[in-house]
Amino acid sequence: MSASGDSVRFLIREERPGDIEAIRGVNCLAFGGEAEAMLVDRLRAGGCVIASLVAERAGRIVGHILFSEVRIDTPGGAVRAASLAPMAVLPHFQRSGIGTALVRRGLDVCRERGWSIVLVVGHPRYYPRFGFSAAPAGRLRNPFASGDAFMALELAPAALAGISGTVVYPDAFREVE
How far apart are CA 33 and CA 56, in angstroms? Predict the structure, then answer.
């Protein structure tokens, strides 16, 4: 998928094996440390990745997004869901539409792969533009955040209807400092 934002042209595509170091670099620079880059490495190594997409501009990786599998433990059993984390864009390319394109394409990939619920812990003014809301996440307990920062998106109608429980993340998330 090719896109452009504010005259910055870029390509959104699946991660390739040769992209790993560049993805680490994007996450380190975007977040100002290694925690998110290490999270991506651990999720990849643990086989938890649903989708890992990059934004490429002129042959250079300038953005990355990862979706991994989580479960919601409910009284009636486990419900599978996707977690959006992390999403990173090199500082120089932020606010150019790359993050928006990564999120939109990532949600499309999740939908195409049969996922009906996506969860995110993120900025409550950024993620609602994609349909995320704290309301459908209201009956879920999350170990990382609550309130407006913990949001859900139903990729299928009423995917969270009647669901309450605790979100259980892969071990890779518990190792993040």
Answer: 22
CATH class of 2-174: alpha beta
Query: What is the largest distance, in Å, between two alpha-carbon atoms of the chain?
Result: 50
pLDDT digits (tens, 9 = 90+) for 65-117: 999 999 999 999 999 999 999 999 999 999 999 999 999 999 999 999 999 99
What would the pLDDT profile of 154-165 be if each residue is shown by its tens digit? 999 999 999 999
128 vs 16: CA distance, rounded Å: 29
* Nearest-angstrom CA–CA distance, 98 and 9: 9
Q: Give the start-to-end residue ranges of the domains of the chain.
A: 2-174
Whether the Cβ atoms of residue 115 and residue 155 lie closer than 8 Å to each other: yes
Rounded to two decimals, the pTM is 0.92
What is residue 157's three-state secondary structure?
Answer: coil
Determine contact, residues 78/27, Cβ cutoff 8 Å. no
At 109, the amino acid letter reads V
What is the per-residue DSSP string for 71-111?
Answer: EEEETTEEEEEEEEEEEEE-GGGTTSSHHHHHHHHHHHHHH
DSSP 133: B
Distance CA 133, CA 148 (A): 8
Q: Which residues contact 151 (CB under 8 A, 6 or more apart)?
A: 119, 120, 121, 122, 124, 127, 128, 132, 133, 134, 136, 137
